[in-house]
Amino acid sequence: MTAGTVGEALARALDAYEELGSLGEEVEDEWTYVTDLGTAWRERFEEVIAARGGEPADPRAGAAVDLAIEEIGRIEDPHRAIDWLSTFPQVVLLAFGEPG
Q: pLDDT, tens digit, for every residue of 9-59?
């Protein structure tokens, strides 16, 4: 389901990121790291949404976001989720030509 605007695609990515963060929070020793990382990336996504949210999304960028969401949806291991908490946002932002 490719989004029509940059904001729609990033909102969907944020929803998926929240689920990924919830999985990562299952690792007690990493809870602070996971929540801090989630806060930082959420803020970065919100900056891009504020600046470019209404722009039409390039269909290729939307497809890249869809594939990234699909990929993190397959993650079941909380430790692997933590690994992707840094990777996923960068992949999504890169799809839209945004620096991480």
A: 999 999 999 999 999 999 999 999 999 999 999 999 999 999 999 999 999
Nearest C-alpha neighbor of 65 from the set 7, 10, 22, 4: 10
Write down the pTM of the prediction.
0.91
User: What is the number of alpha carbons within 13 Å of residue 34 lying toward its C-beta?
Assistant: 22
Q: Are 2 and 62 a contacting pair, CB within 8 Å?
A: yes
What 3-state DSSP class applies to 27? coil
First to last CA, the chain: 24
CA 23, chain centre distance (Å): 14
